[in-house]
């Protein structure tokens, strides 16, 4: 069988930035083992697999090169972009059935807005010794979300200059570590962040939509805001607009297709 395959940069306003994701459009559900092998072959942080249901909605699953994950923002944005740009979808809103429940993507001008579950982090009093070793000090705040831990630093520069150690990060995380700090003065940003998930095969993720479901809640509470601007300050970088609406977070960003073809496996 031949399956349409795309490489899409997500959360970008120009090529060669943001977070690349593979998108594979299926005509029917495939075994998880096959999708895992395709994701390994693609070797992106995540590859999204979509196929259409009888009611016009879509099933969506995400795989890193090593494991299936329960939620991925940038690959969802990439999948929606590919369906609109290359698969003939015309609906203004796409509904996705996923391991994290029903998610949606809506066209908003030249941006795509994702509707995801909010993730309110809970404080943890005991900071892992490995994290203190990594930072050479205590974080300003440390907490736990559904899948990831979050460490708050005192400046955007501290986040940018952080040097990761995959083994140390893997020693105290279930999935990933989010580092975050306030945006630089005058930048128009409420926050910056970086994301590391070596346990699932991601040394550093360029732009992580699911992490911003947690970041929107933390910074929303701290700043008393529900509309926020965020920048993930990885080497590729990515800009997101966040709207926290109680149990949901709306994440908005752009995407562009970098490659398209057929997967022949």
Automatic annotation (TrEMBL):
Q: Spell out the Pfam families in the cross-references.
A: PhzC-PhzF (PF02567)
Q: What InterPro entries does this protein's entry cite?
A: Phenazine_PhzF-like
Is the keyword Isomerase assigned to this protein? yes
Q: Which UniProt keywords apply?
A: Isomerase
Asked if the keyword Acetylation belongs to this entry, the reply reads no
Similarity remark: Belongs to the PhzF family.
Q: What is this protein called?
A: PhzF family phenazine biosynthesis protein
């Amino acid at each position: 069988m031949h399956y349409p395959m795309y490489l899409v940069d997500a959360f970008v306003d120009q090529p060669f930035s943001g977070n690349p994701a593979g998108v594979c459009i299926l005509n029917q559900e495939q075994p998880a083992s096959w999708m895992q092998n395709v994701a390994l072959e693609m070797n992106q942080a995540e590859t999204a697999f979509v196929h259409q249901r009888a009611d016009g909605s879509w099933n969506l699953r995400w795989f890193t090169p090593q494991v299936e994950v329960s939620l991925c923002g940038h690959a969802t944005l990439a999948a929606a972009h590919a369906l609109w740009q290359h698969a003939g979808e015309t609906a203004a809103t796409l509904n996705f059935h996923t391991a994290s429940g029903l998610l949606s993507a809506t066209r908003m001008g030249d941006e795509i807005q994702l509707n995801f579950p909010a993730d309110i982090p809970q404080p943890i009093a005991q900071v892992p010794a490995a994290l203190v070793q990594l930072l050479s000090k205590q974080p300003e705040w440390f907490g736990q979300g559904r899948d990831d831990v979050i460490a708050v630093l005192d400046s955007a520069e501290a986040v940018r200059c952080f040097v990761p150690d995959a083994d140390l990060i893997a020693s105290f995380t279930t999935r990933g570590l989010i580092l975050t700090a306030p945006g630089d003065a005058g930048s128009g940003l409420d926050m910056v962040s970086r994301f590391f998930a070596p346990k699932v095969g991601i040394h550093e993720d360029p732009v992580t939509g699911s992490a911003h479901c947690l970041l929107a809640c933390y910074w929303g509470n701290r700043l008393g805001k529900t509309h926020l601007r965020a920048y993930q300050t990885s080497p590729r970088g990515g800009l997101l607009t966040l709207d926290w609406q109680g149990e949901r977070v709306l994440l908005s960003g752009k995407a562009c297709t970098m490659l398209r073809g057929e997967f022949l496996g």
